[in-house]
Design the sequence.
């Protein structure tokens, strides 16, 4: 597979199918509950963006100034959002984070192991070690959105 083919396999708009994490007992659980929503975009320019969220996020009522910090925090905790550049290395993709819902991740590289699944789905798996310490493994399954 050429370098162009490696990168081109990711280019496009992908919708979130599932977002799971292995718990301490090794069993997977849905990070955002059933039917999560989200979008992952890889552009030919080498840019990417991701927004994933729980389908159970509650809409706010009233003016923004009247929404409680607790309500905002609850919805914030049910969200993943970042953007930047990416490098496709074949067996993994590196997301070079420029802007992120977690400011501490800005400027970091997030490694995701890539597996092409049947029916054109894509799995991105986090490594067991991140930021120098063990972390739970997360699996994101996305489906290509057809134009």
Sequence:
């Amino acid at each position: 597979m050429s370098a162009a083919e490696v990168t081109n396999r990711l280019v496009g708009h992908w919708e979130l199918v599932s977002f799971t994490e292995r718990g301490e007992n090794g069993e997977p659980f849905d990070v955002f509950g059933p039917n999560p929503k989200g979008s992952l975009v890889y552009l030919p320019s080498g840019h990417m963006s991701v927004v994933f969220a729980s389908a159970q996020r509650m809409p706010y009522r009233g003016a923004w100034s009247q929404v409680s910090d607790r309500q905002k925090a609850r919805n914030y905790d049910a969200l993943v959002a970042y953007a930047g550049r990416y490098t496709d290395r074949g067996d993994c993709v590196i997301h070079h984070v420029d802007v992120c819902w977690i400011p501490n991740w800005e400027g970091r590289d997030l490694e995701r192991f890539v597996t092409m699944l049947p029916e054109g789905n894509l799995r991105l798996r986090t490594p067991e070690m991140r930021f120098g310490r063990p972390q739970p493994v997360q699996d994101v399954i996305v489906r290509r959105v057809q134009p």
